[in-house]
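Each record in this resource describes a single protein on a pair of labelled lines. An example record follows, reproduced without changes.
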Amino acid sequence: MQDKAPIQIDFYHLKSDDIATPLAMLSDKVVASGQQMLILAREAHFDAISTALWTQKPESFLAHNLDDGDGAEHAPVWVSSRPDQNQITAEFIALTSGMVPPDLGKFKRVFNLFDGSDEQAVHVARQCWKDWSAREDLQCRYFAQDENGNWSQRQ
């Protein structure tokens, strides 16, 4: 019997508190690959995330809704403030604000975005890195954003 491949967790170290723009970029790539994306975020970020998902690409938008909204059976992206719910049964998840689902094993891919200018966010991300990189069923990578907003993988 073949073992299950490790779950890929990518840490995204943001240069600012703008989580909406990278979430829209990642969501677009996930949906383009035929997958669905669950975004865990605080309600205070919902408006910015929703706007970015609608306007990131002028020629298209990413259909989505929030928490108890309608359309879960059709939406490729869902924004939720509830770590214990996955309204669209997505296999890809974006974590923000230190929010983590109770079982990472339900996902194929995890994106953990954190604001590098927020000490608490950095502390939580470091603790997650330490805990998750020690597990054999998880594979962690780290990406940092440069001054121009471009991403590069770091060791």
